[in-house]
Amino acid sequence: MFSNVISKIQESKNIAILSHVMPDGDNIGSSLALYNVLHAMGKYVKYILDDDVPKIYKFLKGSEKVQKPEKEEKFDLVFVLDCGDRERLGKSAMYLEGATVVVIDHHISNKYFGDINIVNPKASATGELIYNLLVEMDYKLDIKAAECLYTAIVTDTGQFQYSNTTDITHNIAGELIKSGVVVADISNKVYQSNPKGKVLLIKEALESLEFFNNDTITCMALTQEQIKETGSVDSDTENLINFGRDIDSVEVAVFIKEITKEKVKASLRSKNRIDVCKIAAKFGGGGHIRASGCTIYGSVEEAKKLIINAVQQQINGGDK
Ligand code: 5GP
Ligand code: MN
């Protein structure tokens, strides 16, 4: 599956790894695993991201080496991991110019914008695909790379709870544990280390919770002012949407985060039957069937109306 990719790695001297803005655990974990391995192979490699690495992922090896897209530089080979759309690369997209681009991803909405595209929506996380690549390279995983991949998988599967979790996912997790990963240690660092500001932000988010469509839809919203006042950072909103989803009557949860007064980021989650990727696609976004997102140009209130309407239509119109 990866033979083309492996020959490209062998031929290349300068390699960049890119991923999407507002990075999550799979973005960081899968990219750092590949970064550490390429570095250990003696390649000149850079992992470039528009946004900061969230604090909870800073224990992963190599996280301190992540760079911002500030310098003009040419690469022979550019990996784009966990990102289905070049628009989501932000400024980092400039490094695609003139390079062989290898996209490795698991988003169903992937636009196949690479020269080589390894896209498998059945994979729970891009971390699974990078694990397969390393196996095909005969690379013996050390604990540090294994921790990166385990973090990628545990976060994208919602701690092995979502429908993307398969026997393959568990087998890979088992192999990562054999390579030295201590499960409780990762759980402690990723799930039991919330900064105080994030917990204050959870209070604000719950305060904003609204129900629609006979309690089948929830919506929470946060402004930049609330993020600042609680002493939080943008990435502290990751997973807050789960509070709106994990209610017995709810099928779809919406979370709206103000970016500026005229621009918001919307997140969508579904539980059993609604394809939220279709809803996000109506607004130019994408993702997975059960977890998607999009950017909407408008105020929080305008975005809320638009999105709740679109969700309501899908739930009531029988269009799954
Ligand atoms: P989240 O709501 O946590 O930001 O993202 C949920 C899923 O949707 C993730 O897999 C993420 O990569 C994807 N996603 C979020 N926002 C966008 C977007 O604007 N465009 C696309 N194509 N995917 C998105
Ligand atoms: Mn992912």
Describe this structure in words.
This protein folds into 2 domains: 189 residues, inorganic pyrophosphatase (n-terminal core); 120 residues, Diaminopimelate Epimerase, Chain A, domain 1 (Roll). Helix 2 packs antiparallel against helix 4, helix 3 packs antiparallel against helix 4 and helix 4 runs antiparallel to helix 5. It is built from 11 helices and 11 strands. The protein is of the alpha/beta class. The two termini are 32 Å apart. Bound molecules: guanosine-5'-monophosphate (5GP) and manganese (II) ion. Manganese (II) ion (MN) binds next to loops.
Which regions are unreliable across 5 or more consecutive residues at pLDDT < 50?
Answer: none
CATH topology of the largest domain: inorganic pyrophosphatase (n-terminal core)
How many independent structural domains?
Answer: 2
Please give the radius of gyration in angstroms.
19 Å
Task: State the main characteristics.
about 325 residues; alpha/beta; Diaminopimelate Epimerase, Chain A, domain 1; 2 domains; 11 helices; binds guanosine-5'-monophosphate; binds manganese (II) ion
